[in-house]
Amino acid sequence: MQSHVTRSLGFPVLLVIVSLAWFAGCSSQVEKKAGDGSEKKALTILNVSYDPTRELYKDYNQVFASRWEKETGQKVSVTQSHAGSGKQARNVIAGLEADVVTLALANDIDAIVKKSDGLIAKDWQKRLPHNSAPYTSTIIFLVRKGNPKGIKDWGDLLKQDVEIVTPDPATSGGACWNYLAAWGFALKRELGDLAKLHDPKQADAVAKAQKKAFEFVKDMYRHVKVLDSGARDATLTFVKKRRGDVLLAWENEAIFSINDMQKGEYEIVVPSISIRAEPSVAVVDKIVDKHGTRKVAEAYLKYLYSPEGQKLAAKHYYRPRDVKGIPAESMKNFATVELFNIDDVFGGWANAYREHFGKGGFYEKMSKAKR
Amino acid sequence: MSLKQRSVLPGFGVTMGCTLSYLSLLVLIPLTALFLKSATMGWDEFWATVTDSAAMDAYKLSFGASLAAATINAFFGLIVAWTLVRYSFVGKKFVDAVVDLPFAMPTAVSGIALAQLYSTEGWVGRWLAPYGVEITYSRWGVMVALTFIGLPFVVRTLQPALEDLDMEVEEAAASLGATRWQTMRRVILPTILPALLTGFALAFARALGEYGSVIFISSRWEKVIPMLIFTKLEQYEFADAAAIAVVTLLASFVVLLFINLTQWWSRRYAATG
Description:
The structure holds two protein chains of two kinds.
Chain A: H1 2-39, E1 43-50, H2 54-72, E2 76-83, H3 85-93, E3 100-102, H4 106-115, H5 129-132, E4 135-144, E5 164-165, H6 173-191, H7 203-222, H8 231-239, E6 246-250, H9 251-261, E7 266-269, E8 273-277, E9 281-283, H10 285-291, H11 294-302, H12 307-315, E10 319-320, H13 328-331, E11 338-340, H14 342-346, H15 349-357, H16 362-370
Parallel strand pairs in A: 1-2, 1-3, 5-6, 8-11
Antiparallel strand pairs in A: 3-9, 4-6, 4-7, 4-8, 4-10
Helix pairs in contact in A: 2-12, 3-4, 6-7, 7-16
Chain B: H1 12-38, H2 43-50, H3 53-86, H4 92-99, H5 101-104, H6 107-117, H7 125-128, H8 139-164, H9 167-175, H10 180-209, H11 214-217, H12 225-234, H13 238-272
Helix pairs in contact in B: 1-13, 3-8, 3-10, 6-8, 8-10, 9-10, 10-13, 12-13
């Protein structure tokens, strides 16, 4: 009896085992490939970054590796990982062992600090110059060829038949910069001078201007028909699906798509004022201590501030912190535009996030009022 | 005496044990974790979260669109199943296979395809645009996507029921003077109603959980429940996401229970009536 049961169960059980073994086989192949690199005893660090830095870090990693080898005689290879900034932050919190993070906004690194068990030290932003942001960018407009809707500045975005493409600030870091840039424009229009924000005598005027800014940004989002979840998706919606009249874009992404991808189909419009977007970088303390890679990881980020690092950033359309020695050919990409800092206008990221994008914040209020 | 019933086949203990541990590992334990997570917030906070206007909008859209999609599928699925069972035609096997496609196709692919097709410039959408009907990037688009993924459930549950129908009963009805419509309504429909309801319930439940195709066809301003949960997760509001998931689970449980009761009632009605 027993043997009969075993025999008739034999085939199905075999089938289950074979399919599981095949499935397991699939995954072990990948691991083996990854293992090959480490056998050479080369130092490997993982740089977890956001979408548009792919080309920059591809160049930078090579330059850094040869420089590090020259200095220490040690071979180093840097692995890159790219996705939406917020998603990458969540990946790191969930256990992706990044040695360094180079994300789109300080808030995403703050999130890692807060939501993980001390992966990154609290004072990370003070450990490197310029708020730990070695290069900057800003938010500008990308419009279709010939600028058919005549969009010149933020105010033109509210013209009746203009459709704006920008992602959801609830899910996208880039979208937060867009939102804050628009808010800053409205404040400047009301106040004439952003310095009034810090003048206690102007408190009434400032409160009034903040209300106007809320209305302005709310109206702006009424012109957003499709709310993508990330900056990459928004670019695809504008470029591939040909939706909308204007894309609110990172300057580096916009110049990249004009120069390297879609010549002649789009035009860049630089508004009168915009925000200084500061993509931040940090060493992930717990991971580098575990991997024993602290030295190389710190050097990797520090070298971004060197003339070579700055030159590469400029070459890939990020505004360098130090313009000394940057070829004029790179600099001519950057239009002169009045830029304001998030610290001056919004009191830093933590504050901006709580007031605008957090639970019960201004963004939630305006999206509820929308329909 | 043990409660165990003697059976010709051995192994009640083994199979029951397997069933329980399998279900626990895959369904019960994750669901318990979900409830525990949502319990980390106080009752007031929980209530405020799940009755928030954004959440209410999502419930309305999700349940509304899912019910509408399941209803459309019940109607057209019945016609498709009827055609496939009752008639033979060239390419029948092909049509039969096409019905299963929504099962197998990655939902992202179908979402993108539908979004293109029903956009104002798409092959179908451009004929509707002049009448001011916009499908892609509106709530109607959500309904179209949910209808697509639910179709096979109705057809596949109805087919065996229709095959089991005894033609002689229809002939008897006809010979007793029933019109075609009367035969349909009083003889055929009551017999297949339980299967139809099962298909309806499956299509509804499937639609409620759908995420992959909806994100491509909706404008994202109006969010279905899974999209809202995803947004909450992106903002690190894990407890909020769990709370909304719990409410959705309970609500869909109630709806499915109701459908099952109706089904049970209709089966009894069909047996006695």
